[in-house]
Amino acid sequence: MIRTLLSGDLPRSRLLSALLLAVLFGLAFAPFLFPGARSLNVAATICVFIVLVASYDLLLGYTGIVSFAHTMFYGIGAYGVGLALHAMGPSWWAIFVGTAGALSLSLVLALVIGLFSLRVRAIFYAMITLAVASAFAVLASQLSDLTGGEDGRTFRVPELLQPGFHLIEGEIMGRAIDGKLITYYLVFSAALALFLFMLRIVNSPFGRVLQAIRENDFRAEALGYRTVIYRTLANCLGALIATLAGVLMALWLRYVGPKTMLSFEVMTDILLIVVIGGMGTVYGAVIGSALFILMQNYLQVLMKEASGALAGVPLLANLFHPDRWLLWLGVLFVLSVYFFPTGIVGRLRTKAALRRLR
Amino acid sequence: MSELLLQLEGVHTHIGQYHILQGVDLAVPKGGITVLLGRNGAGKTTTLRTIMGLWHASRGSVRFAGDDITHSPTPDIACAGIAYVPESMGIFSDLTVRENLFLAARGVKSADQMDEARLEWIFGFFGALKKFWNQPAGTLSGGQKQMVAIARAIVEPRKLLLIDEPTKGLAPAIIQGMIAAFRELKQTETILLVEQNFSFVSALGDTVAVMDGGRIVHSGSMAELTEDRDLQHKLLGLSLDTNQ
To answer: Chain B residues with CB inside 8 Å of A209's CB?
Structure first.
């Protein structure tokens, strides 16, 4: 059952299995385990980033494509559903129209970018995607009548997803069953389904061809595979899933804006998470996203505590001042890349494999 | 003369500013092993890569089974029935042995659907593959990787196998096993074999072509070359005695 659900791609490490189960359990029961708006927001962001990062891993880790346009597709999904809800009012039909429109636009763009530029060398492809994504971000800011410009757009969601909506009177385990909770479980279940779908993709014959192309595209061609077609398909698939991640994020935030959805910061976050979690593993997206988003949100809090405790020690208190959280985040990433060059998942799997051989 | 399967006529190939193949004329008859000999840099690997479409001929023609494949894309050439085993073994090291073979079995939708009888036939030559069936190919030894590369080329019936220096870097005991495997393979397959190890190919080859300076400078039967030590010395700068 579990083997089928995971498409035969088991974690292959006890520690990794334990970590994955902890993340799954934590996310599945987050509204009841970690009360408060902030922790729920962190959990929803982790869910969305798992999908977004795993879809990028499909390109970078499995196919060897370096793309900087992933946030563009994420943004298209978010803006698609956001603008549709803004223009058409809070209805499920608006969500459907926005999602379908965003998926169509992403598919066309990914197809055009892929067919025209995946023939060139990797570095040129990366530059082309960077240029297209930057142009798209500028366009979203400039078309302020439509997109709300730099301020973005807030919008209302269908009644069922509104925080004021209560599905049942009273509480379950101290938590009201309101629209926010329903939205969270919509995000969680969609993220889980998309994650399992991606596991299926990478473990299918199509996924094996992608891995072969990543290792050596000439060899794959010599076996009869048209690598441009496969790369373009992977590009389209990654783009469509990133678009759906954008839809989920927009529904959760009830807001779309260029900084949150289209900025280069989001792209660097995705890259960091893929590297930290482990490229070409899909599970790396889960571990990396959980670790990264938690640190991004709670490192400052931890440092405030540490700085308070070290108040008497001048240099250390200064070093752990909450304002320096980005410095420490950077140090932690340098250390993790140094000690886990194949990512956390890669490292755990290698250790487990070596233990089995002994 | 037996029917020709592959024919190169006046093939020139440029790689960047270098003019590597300078008018190669090569004929590979159907059935058996044709050996392509020559010193390092003579153009043997470039000839195989040009046949495979990995580098395109700037002049001349490559005909396979009656069709002109000079400017065909590599996947089309592979689908026409030519399998290529590159010099560097060409395995996918992150994939298991099973997945490596499955990728080459184009006619099946899942690894479980691969022709079992044919796999058993392959295990008959390369028994180690059965043992390491579900192990990542990158963790195998050099000889085992070479077995994976050759097994991948024959996992489905092909019209022609292009094999580039299969004994390079292998231990003598493994080379002996390889000779036995090729002897059986040539009963059913047509092979164009590039080698520098003359003692290896003299025991296997039916016809031979010798390259030098990007051209074929000799072609004929392997028996003739094996017997004529002066010709060996003239063409290859060696004799069988010194290579055994």
So the answer is: 103
